[in-house]
Description:
This protein is mainly β and 602 residues long.
Amino acid sequence: MKQAMARTVLRSAALLAAAMSGVAMSPSTGAAQRAGRLGSVPRDVALEVTRVFNAPSTRRVRGDFTLAAADTVRGDLAVLNGNARLAGVVYGDVVVLNGDVFLQDGARLEKSLTVLGGTFEAPERPNVVGDIRVWSSRYRYREDADTLIAETDFFARWSRWVRDDRENGAESQLFVTTAHTYNRVEGLPILVGPRFRLRAEDTRVRAEVFGIFRTGDGIEWKRENLGHQALLEVRQGNRAGVALGGKLFDVVDAMEQWQLTETEVGLNSFLFTRDYRDYWQRHGGEGYVALFAGKASELRASYGEERWSARPARDPWTLFNSDLAWRRNPTADEGVLKRFTLSAVFDTRTNSQRPRSGWFLRGEYERGTGTYDTMGELTPGVRPLPTGTTPIPLNEGVTYSRAFFDLRRYNRLGPNAQLNLRAVFGGWVNGDPLPVQRRFSVSGIDALPGFDFRRMNGTSDVGTCATGSEEMYASLGRPAQCERMALLQAEWKGDFRINLFGDDSDYGDRRWGLGRVRADGAWVVFANTGRGWLIDRPSPSSIPNADLGPLVFDKNSVPGFDTWRTDIGGGFDFGDFGVYIAQAVSQGGLSPNVYVRLSRRF
């Protein structure tokens, strides 16, 4: 009796010491019964379990999971939002997120066990070969299709208040976090407000109301620095179903969001005073209905009314090149428009972050009707106007429609090789000329990296549809002016691994590391070709402009491939970043461009 009591006291003391010290338990410690570590989940641990869950070879379970004594899991096992009762054998790592683990007599785990947001119960000497790590703090994440993204943002973790109710699946959060990315119009936009989420079986409700404060003018409370966005959505179904929702917003939105990621745009702005996007303000509301299925496939229709306004560039603080002036933000068209949008996404990729094979298709049709108060400035002849008008006031009705398609195919040629293809098409469908903020360009490191960002080559530039002189175009802020564009991209990739000073058998598919000079990634060879153009329309007031000739085509025709811009290049993709060099081949006299990407090319 006394010996049993002594063992109990010793076990309790060991568990308390492990929880307070923050050191992972080893199976040799004899940790038994119930264990849970206090404190928040370290960032590296959150990213590690996220990688395990997202890996294609992992057996993923949502909800409760039971492994019978006669059953075996050959690889890694990940359980999300459920309890795991394990009596069999698991040969890989075991990750349980927001649930408890019950290890029964006879169970055997050949690698490590990590529990976030739960507890661990086991016999006195659990049969776990690797480490046992347990945190009681919940695992915070968001989802992109079936892929988890760990919420590790500093501001969100530092200033978010969370209340969870496990029994009814409700969660309310008070956010103080950043909105999209750092830019020359808003500086760093900050979101403050509550979010509420409720889940009951296959029905999910999400509501959020955020105020927006823009820091482009410093910490100054005035109307142009304030905004808002509110959302209410009801979603029925798990793997497939329907969603209904509505939005109210007063936001600064980016043009041409299909190029570059927000992280890349924000870091270039913050570090080097280079903003590769343009912006305009949207104030209004919309409602939508969506059908979804599978990983990330969705068909969505939305309708709303909003006021468009131009936004000038501010002078936000930057780390380097602070003596350089920001590029002017092009003047957008202003007015009130009603917009109908029909969009679709079809995704069969093995992984949205590092796909090995599969299709990704995204399409959008947009129809807008309304009235302009003011029209933005473009280079001469690009937008025909009725007789007697100027690019300033135009109080007439406008109707336009545009479409956009992004098609990608990922092909695995072998265990370590890929051939990936991409085709992007977008532009005017019918009606009036496209508004400034809905036009296109084929320029920059995401599209044609062998050519400098929106730099004119000649007096009629097929990448931006700019006419006239480089000085005039620069004075307008270098707007994207094309009504249609096409871009084709291809890349051949192969894996490589460098490990100069040690055995690499224990670090799996990590993309790179500093310890002992290790690297793991892919070499890339690529080619890109594309251009933009304008639609030929009668214009009673247009002055003949020879610069328009190479840019204007009939609405039913496509420019010949001999007029497209083309570049080739190569580099190394380390997963979280890549280093590349690209050379223009369709035009002589241009130097190669060396650049860094913080994501894969596409």
